[in-house]
Specification:
The complex is a heterodimer. Chain A is an alpha+beta fold. Helix content of chain A is 18%, strand content 33%. Chain A has a single domain, classed as Ferrous iron transport protein A (FeoA) (SH3 type barrels), CATH 2.30.30. Chain A has a 5-stranded antiparallel β-sheet with strand order 4-3-2-1-5. In chain A, a hairpin with a 2-residue loop joins strand 3 and strand 4. The longest helix of chain A has 8 residues. Chain B is α/β, with parallel strands linked by helices. The chains are: A alpha+beta, B alpha/beta. Chains A and B meet through helix 2 and strand 4 of A and helix 3, helix 7, helix 13 and strand 10 of B. Strand 4 of chain A pairs antiparallel with strand 10 of chain B, so a sheet runs across the interface.
């Protein structure tokens, strides 16, 4: 693949395992709610598991566990922390 | 149903203290509300908004003023993104519940305080005295967490009470504080209203007061390793569904038989002991049997809600929603919708009531639009009668009989149609940006049985009021249609034939004949049409209406061996399949039976469901749409079935 890698989102968390939220997409209703749920810049998120066939995934943040679908997860941008499985 | 609540639950300034209970889902808010109010609480609706409105007076108030507590819908934020969520901020502004509350009780789970504090920041900006209740303080300790509650209270400036709601610990202390919101201290510093500032404020607070972080619940981790496993989780989920069906159909059956037996006894007693008159007839056949048709469902619905609340409070429902989310996602719905569809297999009325837990209005509407396709238990008597009368009981495929497989096929057809039409609606009529799907997975907890029982009791009351009034009115109307205008019965005519003469020239018969052009292509004659009219009040009334129309008298056919009256089914089955000696044609044939079965799979034939849809969607638009589309679908399915089975 040429060009710079596209930025990582929460949907990539299964490959990254642990990450920090860098930002959430602006101006959408869903995004405001995601911020309210705790996806604020700097928040640490930890991957737990994902349902088969690209089903919803479970992540840990701010001391609780949340299940959300990849379609929502794509709106949260992350920077991987240690333990990354990326090449 | 949108009527204002009883006068005793209206907040009157100066006489009652009005408190609003606010908090996120899974914060233990419901258990706390139940522990504080007990049986006094009433469930209703906010005017114009279909969100549960639960209000109750605090038990054993301190001092001379009553304390009225409103339990607001669980929510993660005051920034509402749906109408349902807007209720909380409207109540806090005094727009809905008769004036601003005198105080806000903010309920937060001590084990997830970091997540709840940002919402508390918004609450504190409302300028209403606020008290913080920390629940699950025992669990916090058990999981190694330690919070400096004195420091937290000092930093916040507002009073703080720690409780264990399901064990009643700390409740007495809380009741003293709740009785006097004027004494509550006000908050020290409130952060800016933007999200990031609130979260930063929460993080700083937690850093100050957390002596030791709470560790993950190991029990929950171990259980989830199985219940969320791609294979094992699915197996457990299927077992859960099987148990659910087993419970609502088999375990509830003895109690249901008992209730229907009592109702029959009561009707018989009334007919036997009151002087024979029209009024006695109305009382026995119209009112008591009509009420009976509702009361019979009480054990099943109590069990259904009991299981749902138990699974919800224990934390399994969130897991089940996670497991089925992929399938529901294909239909354009989310995992939570399946709980409503599952409940609808007992009865669509509680199923539609259960859609209140679905946050997205579009998903909720789509679920309501298809919920009546789920094979409710009121269809079972009709299916059982027709299948046993017209399909052979021969074995095919090992132990399975044609009859059993047909019944299973009808159940599957209902469920499959529900999913299919939900997918169609979400891709067409209800297209558009939907709410995000997110679901918190709380740790597994032992539910408070008292709290679950109180919730079941409140739901039952709503069911009896809603379904009861509609079915009662419906069965009285049908009784009237069948008994008027009065026919001239020749002197000395036996009761059976006399009854037949009456039915043949009743208003019901006129109605049935008027419907003939419409239903003739499906093979229905006017007598079956009267049954359809009867099933409008409640589907299971089809069987008893047919029994009346075909003048089947259960007491007339005595079993020669036992000396007992025949089962209603056996007698009616014979009448339906035996050719008339004069014409040589049986009242019903195989293609007609198939058409009738398919008609019952699809048609919205139940006034209580229509009434509850009207209430939950806030108008006549959707119930009328549903009657129309389901009616057309039922007619087409019946017609195709009739032709394929060789009719016409």
């Amino acid at each position: 693949m040429s060009g710079p890698n596209p930025p990582l989102t929460l949907a990539d968390l299964p490959r990254v395992l642990v990450a920090r939220v860098s930002h959430v997409e602006d101006d959408c209703v869903i995004c405001e709610r995601l911020r309210e749920l705790g996806f604020c810049p700097g928040t640490e998120v930890r991957f737990e598991r994902q349902a088969p066939f690209h089903g919803p995934m479970i992540v840990q943040l701010r001391g609780y566990r949340l299940s959300l679908r990849p379609s929502e997860a794509r709106r949260v941008f992350i920077t991987p922390l240690g333990g990354s499985l990326l090449p | 149903m949108n009527a204002p609540p009883a006068g005793s639950l209206e907040p009157e300034p100066g006489k009652k203290i009005h408190l609003a209970l606010v908090g996120s889902p899974n914060s233990g808010k419901t258990t706390l509300f139940n522990a504080l109010t007990g049986l006094s609480a009433k469930t209703g609706n906010y005017p114009g908004v279909t969100v549960d409105r639960r209000r109750g007076l605090m038990k054993h108030p301190i001092g001379d003023r009553d304390v009225l507590i409103s339990d607001l819908p669980g929510s993660y934020s005051l920034h509402a993104i749906s109408e349902d969520e807007a209720v909380t901020s409207k109540v806090l502004k005094g727009e809905l519940d008769g004036g601003k509350p005198d105080g806000i009780v903010f309920v937060a789970d001590a084990t997830t305080l970091q997540r709840s504090l940002p919402m508390l920041a918004d609450i504190l900006r409302q300028g209403i005295p606020t008290l913080l209740v920390l629940t699950m303080v025992d669990e916090l300790k058990a999981r190694g967490g330690d919070l400096d509650l004195f420091r937290l209270q000092g930093e916040l400036g507002i009073p703080l009470v720690g409780v264990v709601g399901n064990k009643g610990l700390g409740i007495d202390d809380l009741r003293v504080r709740l009785s006097d919101p004027k004494s509550w201290t006000t908050a020290c510093a409130v952060p800016e209203p933007n999200t990031e500032a609130r979260f930063a404020w929460a993080d700083t607070l937690i850093e100050k007061v957390e002596r030791h972080p709470v560790s993950a619940s190991t029990l929950t981790q171990r259980i989830d390793a199985v219940l969320l496993h791609p294979v094992a989780g699915l197996v457990v989920f299927l077992l859960f569904i099987a148990t659910f069906f087993q419970a609502i159909f088999t375990w509830a059956a003895p109690a249901m038989d008992l209730f229907s037996g009592w109702m029959d006894l009561m009707a018989d007693y009334v007919s036997a002991n009151l002087p024979a008159s029209m009024l006695t007839d109305l009382l026995a056949d119209g009112i008591i049997r009509g009420v009976g048709a509702v009361v019979v469902f009480v054990p099943q619905i109590a069990l259904l809600f009991g299981l749902i609340f138990l699974f919800e409070a224990s934390g399994y429902m969130a897991r089940a929603a996670f497991v089925v989310d992929r399938v529901m996602g294909w239909a354009g719905l989310e995992g939570r919708c399946f709980i409503s569809l599952l409940s609808s297999y007992a009865c669509a009325v509680p199923g539609i009531m259960a859609t209140r837990s679905i946050p997205s209005p579009r998903d909720r509407l789509a679920t309501i639009l298809v919920a009546p396709f789920a094979t409710c238990s009121a269809r079972l008597p009709v299916y059982a009668l027709l299948i046993s009368a017209f399909l052979p009981n021969t074995k095919i495929l090992g132990p399975f009989t044609v009859q059993g497989l047909t019944l299973m096929g009808l159940y599957l057809l209902g469920g499959f149609s529900a999913i299919l039409f939900a997918a169609l609606f979400k891709r067409g009529l209800l297209k558009g940006a939907s709410l995000p799907f997110y679901l918190e997975l709380p740790p597994y907890r032992f539910p408070s049985l008292t709290s679950v029982m109180l919730q079941v009791w409140r739901r039952l009351k709503v069911f009896l009021k809603d379904a009861g009034s509609v079915i009662l009115a419906g069965s009285v109307v049908i009784w009237f249609l069948l008994n008027f205008p009065k026919a001239d019965i020749p002197e000395g005519m036996a009761e059976g034939p006399a009854h037949q003469v009456q039915v043949e020239q009743s208003y019901a018969a006129d109605l049935g004949r008027a419907m003939e052009p419409l239903f003739e292509p499906l093979g229905f004659d006017w007598k079956i049409n009267i049954g359809l009219v009867g099933s409008f009040a409640a589907r299971e009334l089809m069987v008893s209406t047919l029994a009346v129309v075909y003048a089947y008298d259960p007491n007339a056919s005595i079993d020669p061996e036992t000396g007992e009256p025949d089962d209603e089914f056996v007698g009616l089955r014979q009448i339906l399949t035996t050719p008339d000696p004069k014409t040589g044609v049986a009242p019903m044939d195989f293609p007609t039976a198939i058409a009738l079965l398919l008609y019952f799979v699809y048609a919205l034939l139940c006034l209580s469901t229509v009434a509850v849809i009207k209430r939950e969607t806030g108008g006549w638009k959707w119930p009328i749409f549903m009657i129309a589309y389901m009616g057309v679908l039922a007619w087409v399915a019946g017609f195709v079935g009739y032709r394929l089975a060789g009719g016409g």
